[in-house]
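== Fold encoding ==
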Amino acid sequence: MRVGLFVTCLVDLMRPSVGFAALELLKAAGCEVVVPQAQTCCGQPGYNSGDRAAARALALKLVGEFEDCDYVVVPSGSCAGMIRVHYPTLFRDEPAALERVRRLSARTYELTDFLVSVARLDAPPGEFHGVVTFHDSCSGLRELGVQRQPRALLARMPDLTLVEMREATTCCGFGGTFAVKYDDISTRMADKKCAHIDASGADAVVACDLGCLLQIEGRLRRRGDHATMVLHVAEVLAGEEGACG
């Protein structure tokens, strides 16, 4: 199957190792992977801020770049949710564009959901020796139902132990522009999440969304925790965790 990898702008700018790890996982699952070089943003920041014109322009650009792929796979529940759930809303009054958007949206998956539900990856190629705890990102969980999929893949790694933290499904306080608009509330939410991570005793906290991981890692380090690894699930599954702090 021909799979288009939408890297996301955050991964591209902040932690490219996540994109490379996602690429390795898709190849391990037997996919032919294409990565359109001109890809940029899914349009979510504009959409969330009320700039629907900018969001529509970016959405049409993305559709044009990926519509010849059998599937679109995204290492982010947030961006995958934007494409799968919110793109049709953007074009609900434009029948011609809406049909193109719906066709692509239906073939768009968050990475772990795709690996479990479509590609059926039996054995992740990476190795991890230690204990991890998992943070459920809001968009992936609530818009796409991503919860069991990353845990199922982690369970297939023989030397990895998963311990559940308290309130794993509670928001970390990032929420895109929420962290900028309501920084005090965001910080308190992150502190609560960090306390649960610490109480779990895990060597690493793992999640499917880089935005959450940047929020959590930033707060952990400011609290004086320089030991807990903060990893995208793709990095763990592909064995790329050594590439990041």
